[in-house]
Amino acid sequence: MTIALPADSAVQRRPFKIDMSLPVLIAFAALLCVLIVLPMSWLVYYSVVDKAGHFTLDNFATLITEPEFRAPMVTTLILAFSASIACCLAAAPMGWLVARTDLPFAKAVRALVTASFVTPPFLGAIAWELLAAPNSGLLNKLYRYLSGAEMGDHIFNIYTLTGLIFVVSCYTFPYIFVLVANALDRIPGDLEDASSMLGGRTWTTARRITIPLALPALLAGMLIAFLQAMTLFGSPAILALPAGFHTMTTKIWSLFQFPPKPELAAAASLPLLVLTVMLLRAQHMILGRKGYSVVGGKTGDPRLIRLGIWKWPAVAFVFGVLMLPVFLPYFALFNAAFSPIATTLVTPENATLKNVWFTFNLSSTRTALQNTFVLGALTATLGTVMALVIGYITVRRAVVGHQALGFLATAPIAIPGIVLGVGLFLAYTQPPFVLYGTLWILLLAYLTIELPAAFQQLSSAYKAVGNDLEDASRILGATRLQALRHITAPLLRTSVIATWCFIFVATIRELSAAIILFTSDTKVVSVLIFDLKESGDLGAIAVLGIMMLVLTFAVVIAINRIPGFGAAQRLRNT
Question: Which of 116, 152, 158, 349 is the most buried (most CB within 10 A)?
Fold first, then answer.
């Protein structure tokens, strides 16, 4: 028997709720547009107007015709090309030795490469200044002591284009090493085994199988090294300016000194932006090639080549390379921090804490530390939330136009820090958004710079998590935001924590954009180090640099101790 009940009593109506998911998602999309489109629009506008606001192409003509602009362009290209070649010569053999041979201490080598990876290049430049300045450098002092040479004689001079290329190479070679080592790790050993069974010798197998499969990663790594060398500001500012020459990044910075020339700075920034976009596109096309495909089930582990009598020469080569970005610079910083004179060798008799007390008694130190930690925490929190929501929108296709949103989220990777700083300065020094002189403009810069890495990290995590639980929660009445908050985000907590930590570390060491946007009240630690360099307080710089390194390594170690995190996750250095 069937009993029919009135509809109102049979079904309990849910209370009416307003679903704010779509407005919130659209608001995040609008914020992303403001972060990227607004400063870039002002950058383009200023590049094609004169001081009176009239349309002109004279700014670009000045860049091409004036020697003071042509020389930095040529120097930048020489620096980038030379550094990418030098990085390839050092990193490619290292990557092969670590990934494909029985090299001792291979794990330690990877860890030390990470150390050079996360060392701020401007800090490395200062360390090499302590080591290889012509008169006061520790290495030149050692040479004079051992050889009896007169004062003024030296074998190293870091204040040259060659010295700049060397220092930049020390802190860009990890890009090539990581890409090459990872590519070699992924090459199935079955292919090389088949070559051996068919009579191929070790060198023949490497030449016809291993090298062609790793070549795309090597070329992509060279492009990244070229890009990093081209857009660096800190190292050229520390080593090139005392030597009397400019790169494009230091020239753009100089255009903001008195009297400021923002229209020329904008015009000089656009070629860097265009070239960066082209290089990143080329890198994407190279890495996107499908060199081979594996058909079937589980593949064999990579073949390890026995080095035999070459084992210890290989170890000497690898640690000799690592001495340049890690051991020697770190020694120089520790020596300067506890020595009465930064370029005097510290001993138990002359060791002092004077530099530590001096550093922490500076009023600017307290301000810089406070600003750095506030901006680091805010940028990491807001950047992680933005990446979490925008990654959800693009991967789950939550709103119309999600493809464009994904493009905007990754677009800042093509904007050099110095160029972004120029765009933000032009956008936020005039009504209605006058943010220059506040921490807000630095927060916008840091968010924009770090968003691509955070977005890519969390987008990958979303793709690894199915949406069945989300669909179930939606069926039971949850909104998209509720599903994201209660279902998906907890499943991604490892990636969320790692993303927060990476953004925090990258923020506290960023200099390129901050050097354009800071004021006396908004200094951060990286800018303070740059200012102390100009005043010659090398001991204080060493103390602040060691603090920065200790904090960075503490965060990296903590991240790698998170369960499920480690070799599968990759750190991006911007």
Answer: 158
